[in-house]
Amino acid sequence: MLNSVNKVLILAPHTDDGEFGCGATINKLVSQGKEVYYAAFSLAEESVPEPFPKDILEVEVKKATLVLGIKPDNLLLYRYQVRRFATYRQEILEDLVKLNRDLAPDLVFMPSLNDLHQDHTTIAHEGLRAFKHRSILSYELPWNNLNFTTQCFVELGEDNLRAKIDALRSYESQAGRNYSSEDFIKGLAITRGTQIGKKYAEVFEVIRWIL
Fold it and tell me: Which of 4, 55, 146, 210 is 20 to 30 Å from 173 by CA-CA measure?
């Protein structure tokens, strides 16, 4: 069903959300010749741990997306203040509308509408408004999802999963989180793969699918 998809847009509230939610799928799409764009809305400078420089997440997201195969020119960075997205809801919506107009993506990946993080919620709801005439899939972030409906599965190869793991390793400043571990990432891919009789998979909620 992805044969008709040529241009894909990933909406990441913060750097690394896209890698966690659909990094292996991104790598698979790139390997299939799809044009993939990645928009990150905050560099979370206020949350960078010591002793890393405040701009470390900009450096890391550039490295991580390159590992996944995304062209540097297709990485779009915004500088909204972390945990304050609701304050800038209208500005974010206008940025999303502009992305829709400029890129006209066939498929958009974004956080779940049931994501508990306040910034993720803003991107999900404003993303739905901006891209209501596009196919939309929500990616899984288990540590943030109040609930998650496993409706769409993407089978992954060993190379796709390895690319995701390597991309996330680019975020040295964020390595302390338990869900950053290779065991967790691989275990989740195995679990989702088992559900469809495959070795590895990532799963998505179908928000809107246009055939």
Answer: 146
Determine the Cα–Cα distance for residues 128 and 37; give it in Å rounded to an integer: 17
Counting Cβ atoms within 10 Å, is residue 117 exposed (0-12), middle (13-18) or buried (19+)?
buried
| pLDDT above 70: residue 108 | yes
Q: Are 31 and 69 in contact (CB under 8 A)?
A: yes
Q: Which of 140, 134, 190, 154 is nearest to 1 (CA)?
A: 154
Which residue is listed with tokens 């991309």?
167
> How many domains in the chain?
1
Which structural domain, as residue segments, surrounds residue 180? 2-208
| Element holding 207 (H helix, E strand) | strand 200-208
Q: Supply the pTM of this predicted model.
A: 0.97
Question: What's the CA gap between 2 and 21, in Å, rounded?
Answer: 18
